Structure formats: structure tokens, C-alpha cells
Amino acid sequence: MSYSPLITNLIESLLCMPGIGRKSAQRIAFHLLERDRQGAKILSRALHDAATNIRHCDKCRMFTDSELCNICISNDRDGATVCIVESPADVMAIEDATGYKGMYFILMGHLSPIDGIGPEDLGLNNLENRFNEEDISELIIATNSTVEGDATAHYLSGIAAKYNIKASRIAHGIPLGGELEYVDGGTLSHAFFGRRDME
């Protein structure tokens, strides 16, 4: 069955979202049209406003609608510590799960020569400018536990060493409440060899 051009366009537009296939897009479209047209209008305005006005923070590269994001302008944050993450979602995960009160720098990805993503694509020149201009004493590298994330972390630790800045990598390993016999070999190996002294 073919839908009218407006319905087809709505369904096709919803397919741009991650994890949304054609059936899910169709279900969302029909829900909005059948049961929540007011919600659809609010969503449309919010998407338009965000797509038009949201930009990257000049300092950390977080999404914001002004030059600096709320974290970077806060007087309650420790400017001597910078946590490096791959995406804005990672910032929110750290903010929600920890009591971290330092600053951030968001790479918007990771090093991947195969995909043509080098240091300049991650804004590392901006990061080095911060090293020159700010009194940063520690870099917490919180890239993902993947081959690319590990390579990016190694590259970042090299930059930090150049500026005599302490670099640490977040621990990866056994999940809280996890039992060793059910943990995959790669995770267990990472946790075992990344062990640290007990205090």
C-alpha cells in the first residue's frame, strides 16, 4: 500500500533516528497522527529550534545554545581536572552516575584511521590550547573500551605527558555484582591486568 506523500515523508524522516526501522517509524507516525497531534506539533517545534540554535560549546564542545555550556560557566567546578569523553551522552552518564565536579572535553568520536578520523577531527588542537591557557593538572581519559577508544586514550596520554599533565584512564572490568564465571574473557583480562593497589 502506498501512503500519501506527507505520510511517506513523515515515515522516511523518522528513519534518521538510531534504532528506528521502517515498522517503528510507521508506528510512531501513526501514533502522532491518530492520538497526539498536539504532541507532534510540540516535537516539531522543539526539533526545529534545537537544529537551528544548538551549537558546540567553545571550550568543551558540549551541545549548548550559547558560546559556553552550563558546565563551563559554573563556578562550582574544578578547572584543574578535565575528563575527556567521546560524546555528549558520555558527559550525561558521568554526571548522573558520579560525583565528578571537574570540567570536560568532548571528542565527538575517536581516532579511526580506517574511517579517516585523525586528531584534527577530534578538536585536539582546541584541547592543547586549553593546556596552554589553563592551569590543568589532571586529565581523566574516559574513552570507550574499544580498540579505537584505547588507541585514542594512548594518544591523549602522550599529549598530556608533553605538557607534564597527569593522565589517568577510567577502569574497565567486572560490573558491580558480576560473577567471574559469567564475565567474558576480554573483560576479565582487562580487569585483571588493570588491577590497582588496595588502599
Structure in words:
This protein has 199 residues and is of the alpha/beta class. It has two domains: 5-53, Orthogonal Bundle (Helicase, Ruva Protein, domain 3), CATH 1.10.8; 67-171, Dna Topoisomerase Vi A Subunit, Chain: A, domain 2. The chain contains eight helices and six strands, in the order H-H-H-E-E-H-E-H-E-H-E-H-E-H. It has helices at 5-14, 22-35, 37-53, 70-73, 88-97, 124-133, 147-162, 185-193, and strands spanning 55-56, 63-64, 78-85, 102-106, 138-141, 166-169. The strands form two sheets. It has a four-stranded parallel beta sheet. The chain has a two-stranded antiparallel sheet with strand order 1-2. Strand 5 (138-141), helix 7 and strand 6 form a beta-alpha-beta unit. The radius of gyration is 21 Å and the shape is globular.
